């Protein structure tokens, strides 16, 4: 089996880091305040705070996307926590990640990125108890699948305005026009576009051609995945 997820992960990781910065710096809020209300440096919005540089980042799953996010985060001098029961300790140490329980990750992180694949055991993985642990002015970014987060719990906690949620995915997609998550100022919803980008798309094409050529020669190829692992790829 061939999977191009290693290529599309490049696009998703870039988008994830951009969402982390955007959420932490509240750029959309400041831009809308100025455009729609003429407010220059709205005093109701934070002008300073913990941005990506020097932050504690929590990654839910060390998937292919998450590994690319880790690579992109290195220049930001961040402390990176990870929750992934399947990640060997030796590999976590090699990547300079600190394995923690999910509760610890939500409690200690300034920014949380969700990257787990959608599996029966990950549906509703992130619940109200986790969201209540988020710090004041923290950021939650989901570029995996909407069903990973309990949306009822997300709505309840997002209404407090304690944190910013940047959601590239929801459950369902799209949310109904009257869904309250769509109207909360602390929630930014994007139309599932984190994977878009010429670079990753072209890379998929290159890898697919190489895979076909290698298969014809009965040689291994990049992106080769055993059939039994295919459904667990994020």
List its traits.
8 helices, Rossmann fold, seven-stranded parallel sheet, 234 residues
General description of the model:
- The chain has helices at residues 5-25, 27-37, 64-73, 89-94, 102-108, 128-131, 151-158, 198-216, and strands at 56-60, 79-83, 98-99, 111-114, 138-142, 163-167, 187-189.
- With 234 residues, it is of the alpha/beta class.
- It has one domain (5-189): 3-Layer(aba) Sandwich (Rossmann fold).
- The longest helix is centred in the N-terminal third of the chain and has 21 residues, at 5-25.
- It starts with a helix and ends in an 18-residue tail after the last helix.
Give the name of the CATH superfamily.
NAD(P)-binding Rossmann-like Domain
CATH topology: Rossmann fold
The counted number of beta strands is 7
Q: Determine the strand fraction and express it as a percent band.
A: 5-15%
| Domain unit count | 1
CATH-derived architecture: 3-Layer(aba) Sandwich
* Termini gap: 15 Å
Helix content: 25-40%
Strand and helix order: HHEHEHEHEHEHEEH
Structural class: alpha/beta
Low-confidence stretches: none
Q: What's the CATH class, please?
A: Alpha Beta
State Rg.
Answer: 19 Å
The strand order across the widest sheet is: 3-2-1-4-5-6-7
Give a short account of the largest sheet: 7 strands, parallel
């Amino acid at each position: 089996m061939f999977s191009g997820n290693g290529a599309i992960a490049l696009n998703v990781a870039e988008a994830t880091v951009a969402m982390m910065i955007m959420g932490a710096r509240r750029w959309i809020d400041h831009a809308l305040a100025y455009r729609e209300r003429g407010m220059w440096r709205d005093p109701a919005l934070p002008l300073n705070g913990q941005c990506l540089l020097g932050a504690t980042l929590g990654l839910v799953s060390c998937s292919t996307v998450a590994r690319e996010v880790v690579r992109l985060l290195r220049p930001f001098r961040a402390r990176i926590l990870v929750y992934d029961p399947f990640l060997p300790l030796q590999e976590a140490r090699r990547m300079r990640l600190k394995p923690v329980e999910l509760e610890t990750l939500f409690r200690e992180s300034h920014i949380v990125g969700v990257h787990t694949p959608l599996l029966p055991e990950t549906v509703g993985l992130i619940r109200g108890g986790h969201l209540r642990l988020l710090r004041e002015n923290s950021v939650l970014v989901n570029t995996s699948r909407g069903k990973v987060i309990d949306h009822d719990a997300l709505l309840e906690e997002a209404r407090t305005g304690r944190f910013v949620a940047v959601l590239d995915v929801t459950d369902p997609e799209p949310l109904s026009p009257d869904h309250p998550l769509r109207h909360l100022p602390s929630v930014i919803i994007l139309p599932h576009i984190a994977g878009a980008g010429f670079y990753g798309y072209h890379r998929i094409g290159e890898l697919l051609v190489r895979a076909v050529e290698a298969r014809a020669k009965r040689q291994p190829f990049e992106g080769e995945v055993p059939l039994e692992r295919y459904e667990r790829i994020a």
